[in-house]
Amino acid sequence: MAVVDTDNILEEEHHHHEPFIAHHFDDAEQQFDSGKLGIWLFLVTEILFFSGLFVAYTLYRIHHPEIFEQAHHFLDKRLGALNTIVLLFSSLTMALGVHAAQNGDNKKCGLYVLITMVCAAMFLGVKAIEYSHKWDLGIFVRSEFSYHPHTAEPFHVSPYLIKLSVIPVLLLVGFIAASFFARASSKVALSKFMGGLAITVGGYFVGVLIGMTFMALTAENEHAQLESPSQAPLVLRALTLDDDKHDDGHADADGDAHADGDHSHADGEDHAHGDSHAKSPDLGRDVGIFFSIYYCMTGLHAIHIIAGIVALAWIYWRCLVVHWRPDYFGPVDYVGLYWHLVDLIWIYLFPLLYLID
Amino acid sequence: MADHSHSHDDHPPFNHPAPIPLLIGVFLALVFLTILTLVTSDIELAQFAFPIAMVIATAKAALVCAFFMHMFWDKSFNVLFFLSSLLFVTLFIGMTLLDTGQYQDDIDSFPREPEATPVVAEQ
Description:
The structure holds 2 protein chains of 2 kinds.
Chain A: H1 2-17, H2 28-63, H3 65-71, H4 77-102, H5 106-136, H6 159-184, H7 188-227, H8 234-252, H9 257-270, H10 280-320, H11 330-354
Helix pairs in contact in A: 2-3, 2-10, 2-11, 4-5, 4-11, 5-6, 5-7, 5-10, 6-7, 7-10, 8-9, 8-10, 9-10, 10-11
Chain B: H1 2-7, H2 20-42, H3 49-68, H4 76-100, H5 104-109, H6 112-122
């Protein structure tokens, strides 16, 4: 048993110098490589997870190319491009954060990780503007789809946006209060952590403001397009016709929502005079399916952004309590890899959904 | 960055920080490619628009993978692992596509029939 004792003594000493190496690993390098293999495995499952949605997208696009050619009239590519840049910038700050952690610079790493979290929240803020604008126009998933075009005045606050912002407002108040409370009880790191989270949630509201400004700047264009229906794309014209008849139908068949829904399609069919309108009864359905795909893809991506913020918050906390050193920075690297994957998926989603000719 | 060069000495072998100018250069290249893809989407390119957008997206993805995700310095086993997932995605999409034409007529004809009935009833 003497040998075992020696091992134990060595191991204890080992633990003393390397506080973060789990006992089942030989050394820091083995632990790092195992973690890295693990995170790559996870990223592979993530890609396969998303690929189901990409299959849905591909199939629908191959069978209904006309819907995709017209769908970009509903999506603001400038907002999409803005979000792309925000996400790319957050990827840069994440890479810089990993760099700082690799050099054992916890302070810098914390700053970069905080910027990454703020960018992530900004992305969600712009997304909230996009979603609430669509919901205002009745652009929902296929089963709820009821497009009714109208133009809102600049800086109009959608009721949907208010609903989406309830949780961020509560979080902001909670984090600010927690930060002050922690400072009062002289827990410096906790106070900074809560302050950082409050700044992160603040990023959401910055994103909302930026998105609103963008919408206000582009509102004139949109207005002009809707004013002259003959200039509007086929899909808008068809849906507008559908919508007008929908209102008429409402007066007749009040009470029965289902029959009403059928009615709109049927009347659209009546209106399908001329070859260019031949597809109009299906356009409502098909554009609805496009938006089902759109909401699934961007919604799942947004859930990943939220999960990323939570993981980054954990990294931020460990920066504040000075855990990272040149031989122990694995978790920063792993969360960074996850964050870059979220960016990677957006890199494909942006041209696939927003940049369709 | 004085402490940066100094701390290089105590870096264990598995720790290769990417050079900061490279990271910033990659970011600028990504922004450039984003603007490029926006510009090309405004030009009428007919059937080339989609391949061009995908080539640009793939170039961006490659930059992110190689430098932000440290694949350039990573163990080739990890890289192989990750890239193999793309093979399976291709298989997934390809094999599904082989079969979809089969039922397309049924799908196209399906929702119209129940929706056509009330019209007849009302007219």
